[in-house]
Structure formats: C-alpha cells, structure tokens
Amino acid sequence: MNRRDRLISRVIEGYRTAYGEAPIALFAAPGRVNLIGEHVDYNDGLVLPCAIDRETIVAIGPGEGGVVETVALDMGAGARDSFAPDGMIARADAEWQNHVRGVVHFTQADGHDVQPARIAVAGDVPIGAGLSSSASFGVAVGLALCEHSGIYLAPDQLALIAQGAENDFVGCACGIMDQMASAACIEGSALLLDCRSLETRAVAIHPSLAISVIDSGIRRQLTTSAFNQRRAECEAAARHYGVTALRDLDPAGLEAGRGGLDETLFARARHVVSEIGRVEAVAAALAAGDVRALGRLLAEGHRSLATDFAVSLPALDRLAGIVGDALGEAGGVRLTGAGFGGCLVAVSDAAAAPRVAEAVARYNNEAEVLARTDVFRPAAGAARIAM
Length: 387
Prior knowledge:
Layout: H1 3-19, E1 25-36, E2 46-62, E3 68-72, E4 80-83, H2 95-109, E5 117-123, H3 133-148, H4 155-170, H5 177-184, E6 189-194, E7 200-204, E8 209-215, H6 227-241, H7 251-256, H8 263-288, H9 291-307, H10 314-327, E9 331-336, E10 343-349, H11 353-364, E11 372-376, E12 378-379, E13 383-385
Parallel strand pairs: 3-5
Antiparallel strand pairs: 1-2, 1-13, 2-5, 2-6, 2-12, 3-4, 6-7, 8-10, 8-11, 9-10
Organism: Erythrobacter fulvus
Enzyme class: transferase
EC number: 2.7.1.6
C-alpha cells in the first residue's frame, strides 16, 4: 500500500468510525513548495510554486439535521465541529474549525448554497513546516463541500474562497499563492502566477532536476509570528512610494523615491522588488535544467529573505550554507514559505540530490532540533478521487 492509499484508508475508516457509514466521495488538495517569489504574493507580484505529492483528503457524505459536521482526524481525539451553514456563522476556537466555517461563509457570500454534510479530514502535509498544510486543508474542504452541494468553481474561485477563510476567519493575512498552487497546479510543472491578475502559466520542470524539501524541524504559527507585521510593513512602504502595491516599483523607482523612508521599510521593499525580478529567471532556468543559474538565484533569494526581510533564523542560515556547499554548482537552496522556521527547498541535478540528505545528516550532528529531507514529485492540483 503506497502513501496515498494509506491516507485514503485512514480517512475512510475515520469517517466510518465517526458517522457509522461509508462516505460517498473523496476529494484531495496538495500542499506546495514555493521555488521563488517569497512574501510577494500579498504585494501583487509574481510567484513560482509547485504542488507536492503530500495532500489533504476529505471524505464526505450527506448531512443530517441541517448542519455541516466535521471530524479532523489529525487534531486529536474529540476534534469535531458542527454548525448550520445558513445564517450567521460564528468563529470557533480552533484554526481548523475556522477554515471549515470560513469556507462555508465565503461560499455562501458568493451566492451559493452549501448543503448539510458530514466530512472527515486527514492529511500528510507537515503542519507548520511552510508547505501550506493550511491552504491544502482549506482548498480540499472547499472543493468537497462545493461539489457535494452541486457548486462547480474554477480553480481561482476556489482559491479565493479558501484564502478568504484563512484571512478573515483564521486570522492569517496570507496572499493568494498557496491556495492557487493547491487548486491549480499541473502535474510535473511549476505554476507561474501573477498574484494581481491571477493569470497562470505552467512551467515544465526539466526531467533532469530534483526538488528536495528540507524540514528544519523548527515550527511556527503564522498568526502569532511576525508574518502579519511584514505585510503591514510592505503596505506602509507602498504608501510611501505612492503605489498600489510594491509590485508597481522597479529597482530605479525604489532608489529614486526612498528619501525619508525608514531603513527597515526600505529593506522590506528592496526584498520584494528584487524577489519579483528573480521569478522569471528561475522559471527559465527550471525549464532548461540550468542548475548553475538556479544555484545563484536561489542563494540570492535566501540572502534577501535573511537580511532585507529578516524572516530567517541562524539555524536556517547554517543549514542553507551546509546544503549549498554540498551542492556546489549542481544546484541551489533557499528558505521557502513564510520563514521563522519551517523548510528550505533545494533544486538540483537529480544525481546530486543524495548530497542534500548527506548535508542534512552533517547538520544534525550539531543541531538542537533535527532536520529531515524528502524529494517531492511535482503534483497536480485539487481534484476528486475515484472510489
């Protein structure tokens, strides 16, 4: 039994245990790793994520008593919720509950009627690791509840509903990238996404390349971290420059208009402008299998995140340095996700991928928190699973 079969079996069994019958349908949405374009989605910029072969799976069946019932199998014994989908939907205490409630609220706000349902949810996207377990959860729940209710949404519509839930019910001021990657990616490709227009282009990942994700083991909670502060700093910088979003600045405008701007806000803006400039270059290198260019660009991205955006940690910088030295000219590595912990991503020649694991093992000899690495396959976006 492979990874997905085990997860499907767990979700079906959890549904049977909770509700005393089998589900009628299964839906899945993947996590994602962002290859370049960090902290620019909420600045209306360009990003380049790809979905990974780790996912959230939802089992669903008809509801009773006019309510949506949920059992969250990864959240411990007794992790259940029940609420009426019509009328005012109140926020709950747990983040996972608010993802479900928020998805229903925003689906209804878009003019669709969500039908009563019973769902069970489980996943294998590591929680708090920067691989978008929350977006995977929200998109999977949204797809399941919508299709159960006879609502068929385009990927961008589904992503916006899941993002609304995370912004307004969960309280994390994330951009649209994570939900779009989970909803819209194509297997074997990264997703070049314009976060202002939501236009997308699939970027085929050269078959000679491997994508390794290194989980640092350092966890963070986005809603209690400096994530929301970084977004506020970017918005303040945009106001200084008189632009709608930092996406509207180029390097020349960044320098020309910096007079009187606080140094911290200038550094935040400099990261965003330089990071957007790396996205198309990484996309070209990814398609061509140009590992030297990838190594240089990913290293530049990590330095910018660590210095200008200040979302790295000494342990993450050390881990990135060890992996980068091990890869040499065979690839590159950088922090991925919001930062303050979480994961690094390495893109390398497939033949050099074992060097990543060897470097992580050397790091672990001295680390207080152990890291681990996996090679992920670029996966497809959210979909129904045949039963």
